């Protein structure tokens, strides 16, 4: 009798199933977008656990924390709550977790702080001042990049100082002393018990390299290692993975999935070479390679477009990709006179799609090349009352009031944290000036004592002495309490006793009130961290310490958002951030030469190829609807610029683009700028016509039930549905043609009577 396979294997096609069930030895999955690579990884983990592996034997490296969370949630549906014990997360967060346990081997405390980019720049600025160098020549940002790339290439300060090539480059850049700054920077981080993002990789590599007993421990522990988005790993990440899986001569079970055509992080040192190396490195151990060819995400039109676009790149691993979802809608191209109109038009199209296809906000994404482009779209979405969320840019945790409280918390965990110390020693103001702070830091350095000991011993005027003692007391009390109190209780006590809460409470300006709200939101966030039960340790003890909380937020990527993910909002993000995601409707905006492709990449063939892969990633996020837009002119860097349409638009096959028979509205507007302007001036916008040809394997949108309502139908007595106000009854219509105003009674509103311009309103007759 045949045994019925476990149910989850039914949700995979034949090749996917093979990739999932080939659990022993090295496995490589190279496949195009939407072909189920991430699904294979997810189901593979579920399968391993179902077959008896312990969750903590599994190490799964993902691109964002959010991706790891989603993976665990999906796995939990198969194997239950055990899923939370899988080691799934980003390289940085999982490596930080290992480093905490092993810190003593490399001369770090286990409570080390993670310096973010601002901390790094601030410390570099400080060192530049101390060395009396000109900060205009020695720019912290440029130096940060130099140091970062040195670390990624495993170059220590010592080897940097001996590296003729690097020294020559520095000289040429008129910064001959970078090597010295690097040395000092590393010393200072070490003294502060702090690691920056690069250190989390660099130090782990060193640890695994120099401590055979440690590497052995983790090789034994992680019986299964999996990597998603392998095409975007850098050399160092791959080197670490390789060290982790070499076990007594033969490698552990490793499975990596990726797509060379979607490699978009070369600027951060990622290299497709890793895929080629992987095949070589593991060939002697019987590597098995799987190619997935069916795209389950997108319509045939979108897949064909993607194939045509990427065909313009010269070098790539050959892959076939096909879809059986039917042709679906054609691709819409929007052209506008300027960036403002582009924003308006996109928001307008979103409303239209929501109506016609019954999409929810969360089905829709606007993707751009640079974060700065979000502003105009935000403005129009707000105006049109469409809820949205912007990813990237200034995150919640980068706000001043949030960073202030976090700095106090960091000091509780690690009193040597120099950047946190500098941030709050005199905030709220307590009369300890810069000179005193400078004295403390140099005393700590000279005597190699902690910052707090230095603060105790340094000579200060009476008032400052008193304030310093008070500050020490606040931190030390919290440290004593930290053994028994929860992270939330500690944070709450610090907020009060530091004077921060009062400081923000007493600020009655509008901004001040906003800050107080953020401050409060941070406390709420810590509370929910303490209460939620998902985070657990290998030993199955939930780790709710303040240290863990701080690490979690320090390692949020730009693409993880804090707070409620479940809201129904339109997503605004850079194309880089959209990797791995999918939406029913995708808008790729700002398709102009020098913007997308970016001017920074246009002077080299490799740069152009990378931009094209980026465009490829963008369009392959779409399931059903793809809209491409550009503007003839736009403000950039404070100047009006005029750009040609992006060359990528010309690479979209003509037959995939919406033809003139589709909707007069897009036709008139898009290809005839005069008609566009005419329409704007007169306000006469022909209603969109429906096309009944879309065919999907599984119809996900209800295209039958929507009736557009030409304005002739809107007369007194008719019941209508308004986007924002809900259901209402028309009581009167007045005004001339093109300028008609309806008076409508919306019974759900406090002020039910609204006068609405018909040409702007999105009304549906009921
Ligand atoms: P990307 O390269 O963009 O990361 P991917 O290869 O990781 O894409 P997934 O995100 O895993 O692709 O899958 C794309 C979509 O197709 C998802 O919605 C997934 O649930 C669905 N899918 C994958 N395989 C199957 C299948 N065998 N049957 C039904 N749906 C599938
Ligand atoms: Mg994926």
From TrEMBL:
Catalytic activity line of the entry: ATP + H2O = ADP + phosphate + H(+); Couples ATP hydrolysis with the unwinding of duplex DNA by translocating in the 3'-5' direction
BP GO terms, sorted: recombinational repair
Residue ranges of every copy of the UvrD-like helicase C-terminal domain listed in the record: 300-580
GO molecular function annotations of the record: 3'-5' DNA helicase activity; ATP binding; DNA binding; hydrolase activity
PROSITE patterns for the chain: UVRD_HELICASE_ATP_BIND, UVRD_HELICASE_CTER
Top class in the EC scheme: isomerase
EC number in record: 5.6.2.4
Domain UvrD-like helicase ATP-binding: 10-299
GO cellular component: cytosol; DNA helicase complex
Residues holding ATP: 31-38
Hydrolase in keyword set: yes
InterPro entries per record: DExx_box_DNA_helicase_dom_sf (IPR013986), DNA_helicase_UvrD-like_C (IPR014017), DNA_helicase_UvrD/REP (IPR000212), P-loop_NTPase (IPR027417), UvrD-like_ATP-bd (IPR014016)
Residues spanning the signal sequence: none
Keywords tagged on the record: ATP-binding, DNA-binding, Helicase, Hydrolase, Isomerase, Nucleotide-binding
Family, as annotated: Belongs to the helicase family. UvrD subfamily.
Official protein name in the record: DNA 3'-5' helicase
């Amino acid at each position: 009798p045949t045994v019925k396979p476990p149910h989850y294997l039914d949700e995979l096609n034949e090749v996917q199933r093979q990739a999932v069930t080939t659990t022993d030895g090295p496995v490589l999955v190279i496949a195009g977008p939407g072909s189920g690579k991430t699904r294979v990884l997810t189901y593979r983990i579920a399968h391993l656990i179902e077959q008896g592996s312990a969750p903590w034997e599994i190490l799964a490296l993902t691109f964002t924390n959010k991706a790891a969370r989603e993976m665990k949630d999906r796995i939990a549906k198969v194997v239950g709550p055990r899923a939370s014990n899988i080691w799934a997360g980003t390289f940085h967060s999982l490596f930080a977790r290992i480093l905490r346990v092993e810190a003593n081997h490399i001369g770090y405390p286990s409570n080390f702080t993670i310096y973010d980019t601002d901390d790094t720049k601030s410390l570099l600025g400080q060192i530049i001042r101390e060395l009396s160098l000109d900060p205009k020549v020695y720019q912290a940002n440029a130096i940060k990049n130099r140091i970062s790339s040195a670390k990624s290439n495993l170059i220590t300060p010592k080897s940097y100082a001996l590296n003729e090539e690097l020294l020559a480059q520095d000289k040429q850049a008129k910064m001959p002393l970078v090597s010295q700054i690097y040395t000092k920077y590393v010393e200072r981080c070490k003294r502060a018990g702090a690691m920056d993002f690069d250190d989390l990789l660099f130090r782990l590599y060193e640890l695994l390299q120099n401590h055979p007993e440690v590497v052995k421990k983790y090789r034994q522990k992680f019986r299964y290692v999996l990597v998603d988005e392998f095409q975007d790993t850098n050399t160092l990440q791959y080197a670490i993975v390789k060290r982790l899986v070499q076990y007594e001569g033969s490698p552990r079970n490793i499975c990596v999935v990726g797509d060379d055509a979607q490699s978009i992080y070369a600027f951060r040192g990622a290299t497709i070479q890793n895929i080629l190396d992987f095949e070589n490195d593991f060939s002697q151990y019987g590597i098995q390679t799987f190619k997935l060819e069916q795209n389950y995400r997108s319509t045939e039109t979108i897949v064909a477009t993607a194939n045509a676009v990427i065909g313009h790149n010269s070098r790539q691993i050959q892959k076939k990709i096909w879809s059986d979802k039917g042709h679906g809608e054609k691709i819409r191209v929007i052209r506008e006179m300027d960036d403002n109109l582009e924003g308006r038009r996109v928001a307008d199209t979103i409303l239209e799609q929501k109506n016609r296809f019954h999409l929810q906000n969360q089905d829709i994404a606007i993707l751009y090349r640079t974060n700065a482009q979000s502003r105009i779209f935000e403005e129009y979405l707000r105006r049109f009352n469409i809820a949205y969320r912007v990813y990237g840019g200034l995150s919640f945790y980068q706000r001043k009031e949030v960073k202030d409280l976090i700095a106090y918390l960091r000091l509780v965990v690690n009193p040597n944290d120099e950047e946190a110390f500098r941030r709050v020693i005199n905030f709220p103001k307590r009369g300890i000036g810069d000179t005193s702070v400078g004295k403390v830091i140099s005393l700590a350095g000279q005597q190699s004592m902690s910052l707090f000991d230095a603060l105790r011993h340094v000579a200060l005027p009476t008032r400052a002495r008193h304030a310093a003692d008070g500050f020490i007391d606040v931190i030390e009390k919290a440290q004593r309490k930290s053994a028994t109190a929860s992270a939330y209780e500690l944070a709450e006590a610090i907020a009060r006793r530091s004077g921060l809460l009062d400081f923000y409470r007493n600020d009655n300006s509008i901004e001040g009130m906003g800050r107080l709200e953020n401050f409060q939101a941070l406390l709420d966030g810590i509370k929910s961290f303490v209460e939620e039960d998902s985070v657990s340790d290998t030993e199955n003890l939930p780790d709710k310490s303040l240290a863990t909380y701080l690490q979690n937020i320090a390692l949020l990527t730009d693409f993880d958002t804090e707070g409620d993910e479940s809201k129904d909002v339109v997503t605004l993000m850079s194309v880089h951030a959209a990797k791995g995601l999918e939406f029913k409707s995708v808008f790729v905006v700002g398709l102009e030469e020098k913007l997308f492709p970016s001017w920074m990449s246009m002077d080299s063939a490799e740069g152009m190829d990378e931009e094209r892969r980026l465009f490829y990633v963008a369009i392959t996020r779409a399931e059903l609807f793809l809209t491409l837009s550009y503007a003839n002119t736009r403000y950039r860097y404070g100047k009006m610029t005029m750009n040609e349409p992006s060359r990528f638009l010309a690479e979209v096959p003509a037959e995939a683009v919406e033809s003139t028979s589709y909707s007069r509205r897009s036709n008139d507007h898009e290809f005839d700028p005069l008609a566009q302007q005419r329409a704007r001036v007169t306000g006469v916008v022909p209603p969109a016509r429906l096309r009944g040809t879309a065919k999907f394997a599984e119809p996900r949108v209800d295209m039958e039930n929507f009736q557009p309502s030409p304005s002739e139908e809107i007369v007194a007595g008719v019941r209508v549905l308004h986007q924002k106000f809900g259901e209402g009854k028309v009581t009167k219509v007045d005004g001339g043609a093109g300028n008609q105003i309806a008076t409508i009674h919306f019974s759900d509103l406090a002020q039910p009577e609204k006068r609405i311009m018909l040409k702007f309103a999105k009304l549906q007759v009921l």
